[in-house]
Write a structure and sequence with these properties.
about 400 residues, alpha+beta, six-stranded mixed β-sheet, 19 strands, about 35% helix, elongated
């Protein structure tokens, strides 16, 4: 089989792939509400004659084709961010309309187009006899928007799964992506003494105690932004206080910080940075642990301290992707992408599994009003995934 034969075969599936993507979009699947979508995906994998399909304890959908020694896993997440401005959209946000060659609305980019492309790619590879000696897993994971990496970490642990290669199908505008920034989410608290609002001098206002820290956060981000690219960032993303009433001095104030890390920054660097932010203040900081409950009732505990990563351009998986890219597009990659955001890649990377990213859609459109993905990009991504399977020896 050559690339021309593959393109011809995929062309026969184009309408089915795009229709499947549209149907995925029409099933609303906010984080922890993916049950209906998970069952639909499982049914589709079974219709496409996957060798094994199951929904794990956490709610992830897992499809397997083949039983060879070389294990390749393609991962996409099922959950989407919410829509709170439906009246501003050009089309209903879960309509899956195609306008001017673009599949519109919520999750077309992030990331149901990738789900469609990856699920059909394994089916096509099987039909084209490209899976001999290989095991292909396609996973559709839960709650990535809040707990990236925890979902497939539990899958790997509970089912003793360790792929040889992982492809994260997050949107990259069909550019091979070699890594992404790290992320630390930090909770800072300041402490005061409650008093009646009519006698504030008898208390200590925890919010006032926080003001200097907020100024330090702003200054630190300015310092980071002044560095040569790529550089880290620091932003205050949430603030709250505890007070006995609206007539009382707040006794505690909390802020949540989102710190993005670049290669070269170490965990100790971030710890020292946080210590400096609260220096000489009645304050503490800690990792902002997040707890969620998946649609199956399984508890997810997310510790948001994730280091940046990057696969080497000379790595075997990168070479496989370069060959797949050339077969798909007719030329070798002219550039690589590096994501600013976090993904499920943190789990395989932490386990030493070679990992790379590639997916349809411009990630800058993710979570945005009138999100959309070019239809041709979905088909190209499917072709690329099949080529990865073919070239992974």
């Amino acid at each position: 089989m050559d690339s021309k034969d593959l393109k011809s075969y995929i062309k026969e599936y184009e309408d089915k792939i795009i229709e499947f993507a549209q149907n995925l979009i029409r099933i609303r699947s906010y984080s922890d509400e993916e049950e209906k979508l998970a069952n639909y995906i499982k049914e589709k994998m079974e219709q496409l004659e996957y060798d094994e399909v199951f929904i794990d304890e956490v709610g992830n959908v897992v499809g397997r084709i083949g039983c060879g020694d070389k294990i390749i896993l393609f991962d996409s997440h099922m959950d989407t961010v919410e829509v709170n401005d439906e009246d501003k959209w050009n089309a209903p946000p879960f309509s899956g309309e195609i306008v001017d060659g673009k599949l519109y609305v919520r999750c077309s980019v992030d990331m149901k187009s990738s789900i469609a492309a990856s699920i059909f790619s394994a089916k096509i590879a099987k039909d084209m006899n490209l899976v001999e000696g290989k095991t292909i897993y396609v996973t559709c994971s839960v709650c990535e928007e809040f707990c990236d990496g925890v979902n497939i970490k539990l899958l790997f642990e509970n089912h003793n799964l360790k792929p040889d290669y992982v492809v994260i199908c997050e949107p990259s505008n069909n550019i091979i992506t070699l890594g992404h920034k790290g992320k630390a989410q930090i909770l800072i608290k300041t402490y005061g003494i409650s008093a009646h609002g009519s006698a504030p001098e008898k208390g200590v206002n925890a919010v006032y105690e926080m003001t200097d820290i907020i100024k330090r956060v702003e200054k630190r981000n300015e310092e980071l932004m002044s560095l040569k690219n790529p550089h880290g960032t620091l932003v205050l993303s949430d603030i709250s206080c505890i007070t006995a009433s609206l007539n009382a001095v707040p006794s505690e104030c909390s802020i949540y910080l989102d710190r993005r890390l670049v290669l070269g920054e170490a965990e100790d660097d971030i710890k020292k940075e946080m210590d400096n932010l609260i220096k000489d203040k009645n304050a503490t900081w800690e990792i902002g642990t997040l707890r969620r409950t998946s649609w199956t009732g399984h508890e997810l505990c997310y510790e948001p301290f994730r280091m940046p990563w990057k696969i080497d351009e000379g790595h075997e998986l990168t070479k496989i992707c370069n060959k797949a890219y050339e077969s798909t597009f007719g030329f070798l990659p002219r550039e690589y992408e590096y994501w600013d955001f976090g993904t499920n890649a943190v789990t395989p990377v932490s386990l030493g599994i070679p990992t790379i990213g590639f997916g349809p859609g411009d990630y800058k459109l993710a979570h945005m009003l009138n999100e959309n993905c070019e239809v041709i990009k979905i088909i190209e991504a499917c072709n690329f995934y099949v080529e990865i399977i073919r070239n992974a020896l």
